[in-house]
Amino acid sequence: MSFPDPRMIQLVMSLRGGGVTDMAVLAAMERTPREVFVPDRFADQAFDDRALPIDCGQTISQPLIVGLMTQALKIGDRDKVLEIGTGSGYQAAILSKLARRVYSVERYRTLSKIAEERFHGQGINNIVTRIGDGSLGWPEQAPFDRVILTASAPKRPDAILDQLKDGGIAVAPVDRGHEQILVRYDKQDGQITETDLMTVRFVPLVKGVAKAM
Ligand code: SAH
Fold first, then answer.
1. What is the number of domains present in the chain?
2. What residues does ligand 1 touch, defined as CB less than 6 Å away?
3. For tag attachment on the chain, is the N or C end more exposed, with fewer CB atoms within 10 Å?
4. Cα separation of 92 and 22, whole Å?
5. What is the pLDDT of residues 164-181, one digit of tens each?
6. Cα–Cα distance measured from residue 109 to residue 213, given in angstroms and rounded to the nearest whole number
């Protein structure tokens, strides 16, 4: 039996303090070693509750925001989840412990390939990755029970919300003036209800597949 890393205990405590109270989400995060998902040079900061740089000028999100977004999705173990922005793979790895299957789209080949290696290294086999433009969602796999955008959309991401099942939930950072607001979308009887959750800071959603890398 392995003992929990004291830094992980500290991180979980700060997640709880920040409002992540869902036990399943906390357990999924506790079982996801963030040091595996950050560049080696940041390994000593992997357990700090802050965003860190990753390759291709992108970032791995702050654990508290990952926790709050995951919690807002209210994922069930039969759910099919779409993630836009694989990045480091950290958020997808957490989702994979709560959902049936995760479909994750990334526009940088480099990031997608590294994330895939990490999933295999962690024995995760319910994440399907794709290199492509996530602003179009993943039409071939739609519809989804849950959708998460981890890059900020310039406006309500309707093309992606069209791929959400009825009764489904999506969360997305959306640009509003000089701010980004984390918005929850609930689809019921074909109608979308929007709820503002908090101010956030994400890298922008960029159209098209990245040419370099
Ligand atoms: N979920 C990631 C967060 C990475 S940051 C993690 O846990 O580490 C957001 C990611 O979204 C970046 O990797 C960026 O390249 C990607 N991205 C931005 N626009 C995109 C688009 N249109 N399609 C797919 N991925 C996109």
1. 1
2. 58-61, 84-85, 87-88, 90-91, 105-108, 111, 133-135, 150-151, 203, 205-207
3. N
4. 18
5. 999 999 999 999 999 999
6. 6
